[in-house]
Design goal:
319 residues, alpha+beta, 7 helices, 42% helix
């Protein structure tokens, strides 16, 4: 069995090393960007506007959809609704009612779900002279159906459709500003659709996506470099060295999955097939090739040893 030509080995090794150097710089930049993004953005709440009705600034009414948790195994998000207003700016006919405001909400993903109602008694929760006579009320936590996108990790976004409407009594509904607040660290909030039909997305930050792709690329190239060395090293590795190489790779796979937070709920992704499956296959083929080379050399050595051949007899010697 012929060995791989030296020129090809040197060229392939040089290409892999050059690619690893480039990925090392990208990895350093991705790590710095991820740390800075997490410290200054991801861990703090994020707020986006959903709808601002006409003259909403004058009424001082705010309706906030607060996203508390992403329940991956349940395909749901846990949210609550917060209504804040300035008691003095509310119309007198609304302030005199009890309740003065009613919040209607339901899961837009489930057309069969019933609409929930949350009544707000302005007089009971208003504290005169404190924080500008502001009132604030929050609904109990409830779940909304969330669907994962068809894109593979790390582009696996989640989407949900809340339906929220604030109603005032005495036939008067003060205009309000609707917004969404993200309390989940490590996610970014984006909204699509029009002012009355919100499609809210939870997605990974760009820095995290870049970090995952860079780490995956570096791991892939390192694994291919190790597999290439199994094919090209002369003398071939010993059996113990091969086993240690393969065992170390398996341990590295488990650590890489946990380090990057690859979800096991959504099944196997393309990222795992490319970064884990292909290198594992290459290492197994390299180990098999190296074992065959070592066995061939051992057989050739045994066939040429003096002890394996019987010395010829002298025909003239006496028995």
């Amino acid at each position: 069995m012929k060995r791989v030509p030296t020129k090809i080995v040197k060229f392939a090794t040089g290409v892999l090393v050059f690619a690893l150097l480039i990925l090392a710089f990208w990895l350093l930049a991705a790590i710095i960007a991820t740390v800075l993004n997490a410290d200054f953005h991801d861990r703090s709440p994020q707020s986006i506007s959903l709808r601002a009705e006409k003259d909403a600034d004058k009424s001082g009414v705010n309706v906030k959809l607060v996203v508390h948790r992403l329940l991956v195994e349940e395909n749901a998000v846990e949210v609550s609704l917060v209504v804040q207003a300035n008691y003095e700016k509310l119309p007198k006919s609304v302030k005199d009612e009890n309740p003065c405001l009613t919040l209607l909400y339901q899961d837009g993903m489930d057309s069969n779900s019933a609409s929930n109602k949350f009544d707000i008694a302005c007089k009971k929760i208003q504290v005169p002279g404190v924080a500008g006579d502001r009132i604030s009320a929050e609904t109990p936590l409830f779940k909304l159906t969330a669907w994962p996108s068809v894109d593979a990790y790390p582009f696996d976004d989640w989407e949900f459709f809340p339906v929220v409407e604030l109603l005032g009594h005495a036939y008067v509904t003060p205009p309000a500003i609707y917004s969404a607040v993200r309390m989940i660290p490590g996610k970014e909030l984006t909204v699509f659709g029009d002012s009355y039909n919100w499609r809210i997305h939870l997605e990974r930050p760009f820095a995290e996506k870049a970090l995952v792709l860079t780490v995956g690329g570096a791991f892939l190239l390192l694994s291919l470099l190790i597999a290439w060395r199994l094919f090209s090293v002369d003398p071939a590795l010993s059996g113990v060295q091969e086993l240690l190489t393969l065992a170390g790779f398996v341990v590295a796979i488990a650590g890489l999955r946990d380090l990057l937070g690859v979800s096991r709920v959504a099944g196997v992704s393309i990222w795992e097939v490319v970064v884990i499956g292909f290198p594992m296959t290459a290492l197994c083929l390299g180990m098999a090739y190296s074992t065959l080379v070592r066995m061939r050399k051992t057989n050739a050595k045994n066939s040429t040893t003096p002890e394996s051949r019987e010395a010829p007899r002298d025909p003239g010697s006496s028995s």
